[in-house]
Amino acid sequence: xxxxxxxxxxxxxxxxxxxxxxxxxxxxxxWRIPEKTLLGLCLLGGSIGGFIGMRxxxxxxxxxxxxxxxxxxxxxxxxxxLFLLLRGLN
Length: 90
What we know:
Largest sheet: none
Number of helices: 3
Number of domains: 1
Distance between the termini: 15 Å
Helix content: over 70%
Structural class: mainly alpha
Radius of gyration: 14 Å
Number of strands: 0
Order of helices and strands: HHH
């Protein structure tokens, strides 16, 4: 259980940093992080970091896939986590 919590903490922190870095690069008109990478990190468990990164940095909020996809993915991942947690307690 502690490995899962550590993994989720790290992947969400990495995802948050990637969103921050991509926003910073967009302001400088520099090379950008591909959207597939940002979405992939969210799929790997970083949806909380991605959602917070979107809100804090006002980044990718007008993109349909991000504005709807990440919150839906976040709800799904929270539901899956609760299901696995409750299943593990029995």
